[in-house]
Design goal:
- The protein is of the alpha/beta class.
- Helix content is 57%, strand content 9%.
- It folds into three domains: 83 residues, Up-down Bundle (Four Helix Bundle (Hemerythrin (Met), subunit A)), CATH 1.20.120.140; 190 residues, Rossmann fold (3-Layer(aba) Sandwich), CATH 3.40.50.300; 139 residues, Orthogonal Bundle (434 Repressor (Amino-terminal Domain)), CATH 1.10.260.30.
Amino acid sequence: MFNSLSDKLDKAFHVLKGHGSISEINVAETLKEVRRALLDADVNYKIAKDFTNRVKEKALGQNVLTTLQPGQLMVKIVKDELTQLMGGDAAGINLSESPSVILMSGLQGSGKTTFSGKLANFLKNKKTKKPLLVACDVYRPAAIDQLHVVGDQIGVEVYSDRENSDPVSLAKAGIAHAKANGYNVVIIDTAGRLAVDEAMMNEISNIHKAVNPQETLFVVDSMTGQDAVNTAKAFNDILNFDGVILTKLDGDTRGGAALSIKSVVNKPIKFIGTGEKMDAIDVFYPARMADRILGMGDVVSLVERAQEQFDEQEARKLQKKIAKNQFGFDDFLKQIQQVKKMGSMKDLVGMIPGAGKMVKDMDIDDDAFKHIEAIIHSMTPEERSKPAVINASRKKRIGKGSGTSVQEVNQLLKQFNQMSKMMKMMQGGGGRKMMQMMKNMPR
């Protein structure tokens, strides 16, 4: 996501490299490239022009600090302006009522039904809510089935009534069911519609009036670029929605929707979808996204994801094992499982400052650990707990059983030994300090 834009902005800042000061000439040259990069990312021309005008005004209107090079100053100004362009601060979700009603709207094929499930999963696991999904798409034959499949996956009940073909009464019945059964959040999945379809737009307007939701969210496929922004405006004119959900940001998206939508509809992006799994949902933080666009990574999100998987009790057990030199491959396997739960590997690497550029053209498979897991699963319980017993004949058997070569088995054993030594060294206080830091970090 945003790889092309990141590259072009990086080239634009190179114009200022070597210049001792900012001048109208070198700023104009840089901003011409910045504007071109934004237009190539499918950002509306007026938004791109206004953006570069604001950056120019700020760049020429302040003295360059002696500690900053002109290029660094320009990056800082562009970062601040990108943050504002995308909304400034992260927008929360209104869950003040019980039950809180969330109405999902959007185009056909925008990923609305899947995201309804992701949102329910997020609210259940991160906000300790008891959500109910309500199936109000009476037009697409498989829509109700799809929502039930999603609900089963995440352990959330789905309210549906195949005998009822009126979305308005279905929505009201779903809310009544939630009140009667102790649900505190109701997520209403509506039919995908086209902005030009007047009857369908009137229908969602009627649902909106009937249920008076605390949150009306517009779900949009970020891969549709500028079209997504125009559609958002048409929906906002009818619904006056509260926020935007951008799906498929893990795909080949140029980023125009994320950069433009706030300026056009003056509504915040609240969540983003970053993959196919039910936990591939992130709160949208404009400042963090600006960092990622400019190749600065997103360490805060990376630490937050690590904290979600961080189990203090398990960490203490692990610490004792390391201290007694009992760290084995079963423990290593547990660590791999925790890393895998944090999200897609390419997304995680992109959060490391500077690493995004290195991996942008690499195909980092989510099954990157597959061969390592296969090797470990081919070991006997004794070999996993006491790797030192693994001799040449055992290596041959493990390689054959895991479909790998003896060289790959050797490589894993070497890496494991190096990691064990490093972890042992950290027991001198460094490991405890790191655990304490993780524990004390603001959540």
